[in-house]
Amino acid sequence: MSTEFVAIKRNGPLLDIVLDRPENGNLINAEMSDAIIAAVTNIDDDVKLVRIGSSSADFCKGRQSPMPAADAKPSAETLRRVVAAPPLALYDALKAVRVPVVSIVRGEAIGVGCALAGVCDVALAADTAVFQIPEMERDIPPTLVMSALIGRVPVKTVAHMVLSRERVNATEALHAGLVSRVVAAHELDSAAEKLTQTLLGCSAVTLRAVKQFLHLAPEMPASGASGFAAHLAATALSARF
């Protein structure tokens, strides 16, 4: 499943995705995005966890531009298909994974990198990590990145990051709800491994139930969420007998 710039490895119940394009800060290109989508779509029932990290100093510094040449005068439909559709497909695929997805963030997480961190269910960050959504510096509305974060990160956090274009450090990202936990940079790998083993200690059915509730319950009325909670708990418990 691996490609030249992303290593994808199944290790028992763990699916590891490692961005491996260090010469340019792990800029995501179409091939990398397609490989990640293929890996997380229709995972088998034995997979308990998907983990996304990087092999180098930075998590992901954005996306390799797919913009057609200026003199091509592309239509809006071409731009939608070439520019907008691929990252949206990646974000949707990660949201739809049946089990928890954890991002391990070090260094810079810029643009698409910020979206990748935010779209995961849990984001563990080094205290040296930096987050930014800088697209409006080029007068581009970053609605694609925003679509990954809305519903997962407070609206005012998204608005501030988009409109100010300011770089946000790990502690600020934690307080703003963009990441789940911050640890010292030299402890990131050990903390990630400890979290991984904690999650893998649960059954796949329990982890899938938690993921379903996190994904669907926020859009439900309170009464519906309560009934859904009871259904998922009963289903998971019944698997033990």
From TrEMBL:
GO molecular-function term, one example from the UniProt record: enoyl-CoA hydratase activity
EC number(s) per entry: 4.2.1.17
UniProt key word Plastid: no
The name this protein goes by in its record: Putative enoyl-CoA hydratase echA8
The species this protein was found in: Paraburkholderia humisilvae
Listed Pfam families: ECH_1
Keyword Lyase: yes
Alphabetical UniProt keywords: Lyase
First-level EC class: lyase
Family, similarity comment: Belongs to the enoyl-CoA hydratase/isomerase family.
